[in-house]
Design a protein that fits this description.
The protein is of the alpha+beta class. The protein contains eleven helices and eleven strands. Helix 2 packs parallel to helix 4, helix 3 packs antiparallel against helix 4 and helix 9 packs across helix 10.
């Protein structure tokens, strides 16, 4: 699955009472915040009975929930109700906060909120490959490519997200096969060392499986080969660097693990559709927000 995303926020105002009775999607997005005026106070917002799930990809954010203060780093997520006594923001000691968010409403959203309030810590910790996170990424990719055009579709997205969260809360350890499964070991290894000159043999070595068996199992679980997954991680990081840094394309290629800038550009264009230079230029003029209305 390609997970390179363009920073963007999306809002939905679609017809259908079932969005309230079941679940509805209000907003979703992928953002990289670098200015310290980014701050949302849950008692000063105008929305009513909406629920915000926000997941940190990199950098550092912060949230106050009641009287408790929490730092938010890679893999941390919060789920808050609006209105309620909370405030999340980019702290002054942080240069950047990269995150995904999913704002939902309706009866099933309330059920998920109550479940988290009753059974989980205020800050959830999920790996990037956890089903709820991958579902947000998949949804954002769909919106970027073709959009969401009616209430049934947005409601289905919200409901599926709730189900994936509830499943993860109840069966997360089993779903992860305690983090010790060979596939999860390989994923963590790739996500940690993507910038090195990794080979398939390097990845296989951490799993203690045969190359043939591991490759077959990885492909069945992730729908891509280990090397394709490594490439996706590298391209995703390169997208972030193109947006947020002044590094040259050659420097970015080297920093994410490509030893040839020409090969990096070729792979980038194959996955993203444009060259790294064109992507950087286009991103500077691309709209930040989009609203879908029926």
């Amino acid at each position: 699955m390609k997970i390179a995303l363009t920073p963007n926020t999306y809002g939905f105002h679609l017809k259908g009472d079932f969005q309230e009775t079941v679940a509805g999607l209000q907003t979703t997005g992928y953002e990289i915040r670098q200015h310290h005026d980014y701050r949302w106070d849950g008692l000063q917002r105008t929305e009513q009975d909406v629920y915000i799930f926000q997941y940190t990809l990199s950098g550092k954010g912060a949230i106050r929930i009641g009287q408790q203060q929490f730092s938010l780093r890679q893999g941390d997520a919060f789920f808050v109700k609006v209105p309620s006594d909370h405030c999340y923001y980019l702290p002054y000691e942080s240069e950047q906060w990269e995150f995904l968010y999913f704002t939902i409403y309706g009866n099933m959203a309330a059920t998920l909120y109550e479940k988290i309030q009753g059974n989980a810590a205020p800050i959830l910790q999920l790996p990037l490959h956890a089903a709820p996170i991958q579902f947000i990424i998949e949804t954002l990719e769909k919106i970027e490519n073709i959009g969401i055009h009616h209430g049934y579709e947005s409601s289905a997205r919200a409901y599926t997200f709730v189900m994936k969260c509830l499943e993860y809360l109840e069966y997360g350890e089993q779903l992860e096969t305690a983090d010790d499964s060979p596939i999860n070991k390989a994923i963590r290894y790739i996500e940690k060392y993507y910038y090195e000159d990794l080979s398939l043999d390097d990845v296989v070595a951490v799993t203690q499986l045969s190359k043939y068996y591991f490759t077959r199992q990885f492909n069945a679980a992730m729908k891509v080969t280990p090397i394709q997954y490594l490439t996706q991680i590298r391209i995703r990081v390169s997208v972030q660097l193109l947006i947020t840094s002044e590094l040259s394309v050659s420097e970015i290629a080297n920093q994410v693990g490509f030893r040839s800038s020409n090969y990096f550009s070729k792979v980038f264009k194959k996955l993203i559709g444009v060259t790294p230079g064109s992507y950087r230029k286009y991103n500077k003029v691309m709209p930040v927000d989009k609203l879908f209305i029926d």
